[in-house]
Amino acid sequence: MTHKFDEAGADLQLDGITKRFPGFTAIDDLHLSIPAGSFFALLGPSGCGKTTTLRLVAGLEEPTDGRVLIGGDDVTATKPHQRPVNTVFQSYALFPHMSIIENVAFGLKRRGVKDAATRAHEALALVELDHLAQRRPSQLSGGQQQRVALARAIVNRPALLLLDEPLGALDLKLRRQMQLELKRIQSEVGLTFLHVTHDQEEAMTMADTVAVMNKGRIEQMGAPEELYELPRTAFVATFLGQSNLFTGPIATASASSIVVDVAGRRLEVPRDRAQRHTGEVTVGVRPEKLLLHTEEPAPAAGVNILGPGRVVDVSFSGVSTTYLVAVPGVGVVTVFAQNMVFGPVVNEGAEVWVSWRI
Ligand code: ATP
Per the database record, which ranges form the ABC transporter domain (predicted)? Predict the structure, then answer.
């Protein structure tokens, strides 16, 4: 079946947005440019200003400074209901006394849209719930209700859909399923999605572009792989998954790499991965890049070795095992190992070395 979601999404631009509440700056000179039809995630810890940003885009807050442009139009002074925007919240607030189809068609009917029923059925088909159109919200599961809320927002064909932690109330399995579904729906309808979440895995699974927000500012923005592989700050490295951070002065530098002295050990880092080439630097290494050895590995070109250390914790989690290794002078190093047929290679208390390819 074909869907009549031919209206394209619009691009969104935030041009130097600042939002000050009495005694507190929630958003600080924010510049964002989101291309039409993209799935964009704003990711950050609680209180970093994500919801405030969405509210500014929706027109529910007025910026202290800066402009909001949707599809090139300056909407900074436009009333919320006149903006081509719809929001899906974590609490989906369906009308309990109305059927599902009535819930979805409600806004269209109120506006006197003629083919409201057809459009509502199309939107329900898109979220694969048309067969439950006559049920009441209380007869649906949490995930199904969230999909109805999505259909209700999409049916208005907003140029821009704002999603504020829409999957926050769902259990992990349903959340994962809905993440993939949201992604499918977005690519099918081609609208611009601006999704706010504090869950890094969710942001990386769904979005084309992720902006990591911290204290009212964007720390880094890019494709999920880029943010994960090349985080520019320690905050981004640790917020997007786990990272081992080793800090020390630069001992030597060549055209291709730098060597950092970490508690007397020399760690080599490719030059293009280092933010600085003089002074003190922090080296971030993902736990899954590390290998554990029960005997000291022979030194080899292009391999860093830390150790000896002692395994202080082993936690098994199905596909992988996490080892915490205390390395004197360096600290506790986290190692993720894929579980092969033979299971964990070392136990708590074992003496080990940790290595990785630069
Ligand atoms: P969460 O993930 O917990 O929802 P968030 O990143 O969405 O967090 P915001 O709700 O945008 O964060 O809030 C950003 C900061 O602005 C917070 O420190 C919050 O306390 C503050 N703030 C939000 N609204 C107001 C207000 N009306 N008056 C004063 N401070 C506010």
Answer: 12-240
